Amino acid sequence: MKNVRLMDFRYIQDPDDAEFYGGLVPIEGARDIPFEIKRIYTISGMQPGARRGYHSHRDLEQVLIALGGSIKILVKTPFEEEVITLDSPAKGLYIGPMIWREMFDFSPNSTLMVLASKYYNEGDYLREYEPYEREAREYFSK
Ligand code: T46
């Protein structure tokens, strides 16, 4: 859908004993991420049944990565919606401007890491659905 896409990062494993040694995921700034990273935050400690998000951003671009466990993300506009499961540190979910998002179905001990294109700015959030929907209809009709 518009302004949303899944990204695959490299997952490097020891060819002789991948199961024992696990894997390594390198993420390189300008090479793997389509914006300059200004901020990184993590979300952890969610209980089953918790649901977070319920907002959009006007300008911010982000890449969401489940460092551990699995997390579902609902991404939505007035015209389309999708639920994406993040369940590997080698999978990133790019979310651009004007996408409503909700995070839910956190598995025990899951951790979400978010790479963001801008410093924290509460003024960039649209935290109520109806005003968001009005702006998003115009934005996606251009
Ligand atoms: C998003 C999803 C995926 C800060 O002080 N600095 C920060 O960088 C962030 C992200 C948040 N905060 C404060 C603002 C609130 O007082 O932390 C508190 C919790 O933030 P919020 O309720 O917005 O958290 P989520 O999990 O609903 O949303 C967060 C991000 O805010 C948002 O940009 O896309 O994760």
Detailed description of the structure:
The chain has 142 residues and is mostly beta strands. It has a single domain, classed as Jelly Rolls (Sandwich), CATH 2.60.120. 15% of the residues lie in helices and 41% in strands. It is built from three helices and twelve strands. A five-stranded antiparallel β-sheet has the order 1-9-6-11-4, with no helix packed on it. A five-stranded antiparallel β-sheet has the order 8-7-10-5-12. The mean pLDDT is 97.
- In this structure, how is the largest beta sheet organized? 5 strands, antiparallel
What binds here, in terms of ligands, is: dTDP-4-keto-6-deoxyglucose
What is the element string, with H for helices and E for strands? EEHEHEEEEEEEEEH
Q: Can you tell me the CATH class? A: Mainly Beta
Helix content: 10-25%
Number of strands: 12
What would you call the shape?
Answer: globular
Radius of gyration: 16 Å
> CATH-wise, what's the superfamily?
Jelly Rolls
Classify the secondary structure makeup into a structural class.
Answer: mainly beta
Q: Low-confidence parts, pLDDT < 50 over ≥5 residues?
A: none
**Total helical elements:** 3
- Under the CATH scheme, the architecture is Sandwich
| Termini gap | 15 Å
Total domain units: 1
What's the quick description here?
With 142 residues, the chain is mainly beta.
Give me the secondary-structure topology:
Elements: E1 4-8, E2 12-13, H1 18-21, E3 23-24, H2 29-32, E4 39-44, E5 52-57, E6 62-68, E7 71-76, E8 81-86, E9 91-95, E10 100-104, E11 111-116, E12 125-126, H3 129-141
Antiparallel strand pairs: 1-9, 2-3, 4-11, 5-10, 5-12, 6-9, 6-11, 7-8, 7-10
The protein binds dTDP-4-keto-6-deoxyglucose.
